[in-house]
Amino acid sequence: MTIIRVQRNIAILSIVLFIGKIWAWYITHSVTILTDALESTVNVIAGLIGLYSIILAAKPRDLNHPYGHGKAEFVSAAIEGSLIFVAGLMIAYEAIGQLIEPHPLHQLDIGIVIVAITGAVNLAAGIYAVRVGKKHKSLIVESAGKHLKSDAYSTIAMVAGLILLLVTGWQWLDSVVALIFSVVIIVTGYRVVRRSLSGIMDEADEQLIQQVIDLLQQNRKDNWIDLHNLRVIEFGNKMHIDAHLTLPWYYKVSDAEVEIHAIEDLISKHFSNKVEVFIHIDACQDYSCKLCAMKVCEHRKQPYIAQTAWDMDNVWADSKHGKEGAI
């Protein structure tokens, strides 16, 4: 599976780059390089946890997990974000200590070359991982890619600071650069944790819901009289949709099944996801006639006025449209 292979390579690469950065720190004693190395420990741990989570998330649903194992990716991302946050605090602590009691630096030129190479590799790997993560709807691979890219950008800036230090001899720059990036790393960790917790808590993705609503509205059939109580949840490459759909009361079960499959196929083709659609069928009532655009209906009780245009507010609510004269 592509995302498993990519995440496995990310984990292996993280270990190799971590060893390189530790070597660079060992020969230079630079707290800036230590900053990069500590962030790489997060890459290693997150890479291994992410690999396990993706393997787990790929398992089919079972009796204990009827909705599958996809949320394992959110848990992994939460752990990764927490580790990033802690690493930022550790870096800030070390930088302040170095600023108060400076230690001499050694072989800074060699250290700069080593770190620069790791940064270039991280950037290339991060760009590729983000592209694969978005394509396969994998939060953990996309998050890992973004982390690799942010790590690469911070490495580039760190190298610039180290070169300035090498040229000027201003040793305090080592601590200042590390402090600046500790703040960036802490903020990055918070954002990763925030996003993963949103997924765990099934926080509504308004942009995704709006895309689903727009898709259904643009491809709406005349016999899709009403839609309400819509819920959309996405994790990994899976999308779950719950909704109430109003159809003509005289439809057979087989007729209703055709309409449900039409909605499911429509969403699957548009989002390229594995879609589970759970639709509760409501029979139309007399007040539904004024919303029903069906041109031929032998059971019409009221003249057609206009369809209710589906939007975020009226589709989300658990209330049928058309009651008490509402359109």
Topology:
Layout: H1 2-28, H2 31-57, H3 72-100, H4 108-135, H5 139-168, H6 172-200, H7 206-218, E1 226-235, E2 238-247, H8 253-271, E3 274-283, H9 312-316
Parallel strand pairs: 2-3
Antiparallel strand pairs: 1-2
CATH top level of the largest domain? Mainly Alpha
The percent range for strand residues is 5-15%
Give helix % range: 55-70%
> Order of SSEs, N→C?
HHHHHHHEEHEH
Molecular structure report:
The protein is mostly helical and 327 residues long. The chain has helices at residues 2-28, 31-57, 72-100, 108-135, 139-168, 172-200, 206-218, 253-271, 312-316, and strands at 226-235, 238-247, 274-283. Strands 1-2-3 form a 3-stranded mixed beta sheet. The longest helix has 30 residues, at 139-168. The radius of gyration is 27 Å and the shape is elongated.
Task: List the keywords.
327 residues; mainly alpha; Alpha-lytic protease prodomain-like; Alpha-Beta Plaits; 2 domains; elongated
